[in-house]
Amino acid sequence: MLVAHAAGIDGGRGVPGVVVVIDVIRAFTVSAWALARGASECRLVDTVAEAVALAAAIPGSVLSAEEEGLPVAGIPISNSPSMVRGTDLRGRVLVMRSSAGTRGAVACDRAERVLCAALVNATATARYLRWRNPERITLVATGAGDGYPEDRACAELLADLLLARRPPPLDHLLAPLRVTGRYRRLAQGAHPGFPAEDLQLCLALDTFDFAMESVGGRLVPVIPDAG
Question: What does pTM read for this prediction?
């Protein structure tokens, strides 16, 4: 198994094989919570306009969107895991647009298989991929740059798990995040549309025991075949 790394929203564009798109804070933490709360699927889109139109076309759907990390007027859920956790999603579709994660998944135009991951389902994602045992896996940390080290930390954790290496403690991996001004603002609940409890939800390791696979923009939970 070859494990490669890429970064940025376009990190998976043109990449063959299996691509794992990572967005810890906060898109794929939101997705995992939505699926755990009974959503039938999450629909991942590139733009807010697409999200609004798609949600309008799906009866009973719920819309979660942000623009440049900020709430969008008229859309009550701003890519917030705690807001999703408190919403009745049983049997409903969550339409999602985020500035990094959902766009990164949509950009994977040549991948044979696209998975979406965060810390909340990191071990389950690695376990699912080891079961699938593809020749090549590309881990895409969508939050590029020094201000978003949590996606890189998740990618490093996944790489260690995939290659049967002992990963460093999570606190060590997240140390670069915790010294940033962004972390302090999020922890204080000072970012619009991001309640303070969202940060704890996003940085919790292995809250869920399922991986998430996107097929044609439809994100659903997957687990290894027990049979």
Answer: 0.96
